[in-house]
Design brief:
Layout lengths: L5 H18 L4 E2 H8 L8 H13 L3 E6 L2 E6 L6 E5 L5 E4 L11 E2 L3 E2 L6 E4 L2 H4 L5
Parallel strand pairs: 4-8
Antiparallel strand pairs: 1-3, 2-3, 4-5, 6-7
The chain binds zinc ion (2 copies).
């Protein structure tokens, strides 16, 4: 096989990082993305991960999520959803459900017209809920 051109390598890194995010059960930290992508690309450096995350964000394929002061990334196009943060293992999951019954256009006292909402749920993930109490 001829030596890989830089563009080929960049495409593989981009595809791999995008794959990690589309198959994850929720948004991931940069450290988690790096560790998971390294399983297939052992030589992948953290600087490349940051550069690739910016590229994928610019392309609209992923977007950053701020959670508890940390920046995580998730694949775009998952529709309306919420995040569940496990207090025990620290993993964040995407829940395709909405516990808020608040129709668009709801007006609160004082004239505040609601057109969106954001919330994070906290508790124990299924794995942690099955463990004996810490
Ligand atoms: Zn957990
Ligand atoms: Zn909602």
């Amino acid at each position: 096989m001829p030596s890989a051109r830089p563009s080929t390598r960049t495409t593989r890194q981009r595809d791999e990082i995008h794959r990690v995010l589309t198959t994850a059960p929720g948004p991931l930290t940069v450290t988690e993305i790096h560790a998971q992508a390294q399983r297939d690309l052992p030589a992948l450096g953290i600087a490349t991960v940051y550069r690739t995350l910016k590229l994928l964000t610019d392309q609209g394929l992923i977007h950053p999520v701020m959670l508890d002061g940390e920046t995580l990334y998730e694949a775009s196009g998952r529709g309306h959803h919420h995040h569940f943060s496990c207090r025990r293992c620290g993993r964040v999951f995407t829940l395709q459900t909405c516990p808020v019954s608040l129709p668009r256009g709801t007006v609160f006292a004082g004239g505040f017209v609601v057109d969106a909402h954001e919330l994070t749920l906290y508790g124990l993930c299924p794995d942690c809920a099955a463990l004996p109490p810490a």
